[in-house]
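Lab notebook page, bench 4
Experiment: in silico fold of construct C2
Operator: M.H.
Input chain length: 270 residues
Purpose: comparison with the prior construct
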Amino acid sequence: MTDIVTPSFSAPFSEILALERANLNAWPSDRTLWDADWCLRLTPGARSRRINSVTAFSPEDDGDIATRLARMNDHFRSHGKMPTLRWTPLCPSALTQHLGASGWRKVAETIVMTRPVDNRTGSEPGARTGRVGDAEAGGLNEWVRKLTEINRPSIADAVALRSTLACVVPASKKLLIEADDGTPVAAGFCVADGACLGLFLVCVDAAHRRQGHARSLLAAALAFGAQNGAETAWLQVEADNRAALDLYAGAGFRERYRYFYLQPDWGRNQ
């Protein structure tokens, strides 16, 4: 048995539900299966847990847990994936208790932060902010290539990323800052889905950090959100990423809730 400690949260369920729905649209999976208010997402070619996990969208949907969970686990195994549940405050307490009693363990925690969409991103004294160029003309493949120069994921992860972003339906924008010689130094991606503006993949090359580039990306993303009618900007950051948390807090983002992943305590983490 595992004692699963769930974090407190300040956001109402209605806000959490809106952000979780926006997350589905902004970061689509290759395959999706709904079982009442449980959503199974599978992307066999990707390592990302977000698109290879089950998320519950109602704290009231706690019927026939053992049978439904076994069926979900079979889907994971048939695609070569570790059974994974993505816990949010919308997860039924009975489901959390069942997984704890079954020995599932917590493997990661992420903070969801929000702020209003406006032009107040703040600035660092003396920062040399770069101009966010037009990354749309080069297309998705070229932008991912430049992103990989900054972030250097594996080839398999880059292929999965292109596939994921190509499936985004709401309005989106690829952000890129390049040095004078054309070397990419910072990048990001944002999705405007109704009232929600999601920010993803914000990264700055190690040799060009603390020069205001991340704030320039945030400002460009917020401007894009405002142009597309978004009211709330949101992002997700790993709970142990202190530098990113400080950056986003300084730009006006505040924690609203957290989520984490649960997996059976056997096999290797995928």
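Observations: Helices lie at 13-26, 65-78, 93-101, 139-151, 155-166, 213-227, 242-250. The radius of gyration is 19 Å.
Next step: discuss at group meeting.
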